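INFO batch 0412 | record 1 of 1 | parsing
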Amino acid sequence: MLLLARPLPAQIASSETYLSEIVEQLNIQWPKNRTINLVFHGHSVPGGYWNDHRVETLYSYPYLVLKALKEKYPYALINIIVTAKGGENSVDGQKRFSEVLAYKPDVLFIDYALNDVGIGLDKSKAAWEKMIKQAQAAGIKIILLTPSPDQRINLADSNNVLRQHASQIRNLAGAYHTGLADSYSSFEQVLQKEGSIKPYMSWVNHPNEKGHMLIVEGVAKYFGL
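INFO prediction complete | emitting tokens
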């Protein structure tokens, strides 16, 4: 009797091994090292927007990730490339995804859920899947990010819309075996422990440096930090 192979169970990529080849590269010194491209694709949060539409590039998580990496890997040559666009959702981000792939990311970070509230779960899932499939076809490692908060949405509500998007992103990370930086869970834990996320926010839905550092923690584990 012919036995059909069972599909592998959905599983988020291990933070200990998913980027092991890239971490190895980060330890290589000149002249044998090479440039590592980290590309951050998404909306205003990875774009560095704080309050009053100020763009605090150096105090937002893509560059805070760079700072942490350089402390750990002083010989690494790392490019931080931010393709984020304020106000954009994943449907529009997917439309210009060829521009993102042109940067030849070693690791691609996707962070759109905060703005995807406006387009709904179905449209956002389709757009995220298209980007994931295109990136994986090009051999790119991917880390998906669940949303950081919007203070107009009650994080304590067990069925709030951001939690629904966070759940969908976790499922996508499992289905496509990508990495996951679970920003939403980090802010939930802050709310439970401290009773408020306000000290972590610069504006209604933009974190300050303290909030961006919560996001960094979710990313850093994939780089051995």
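INFO post-check: DSSP finds ten helices and five strands in the chain.
INFO record closed
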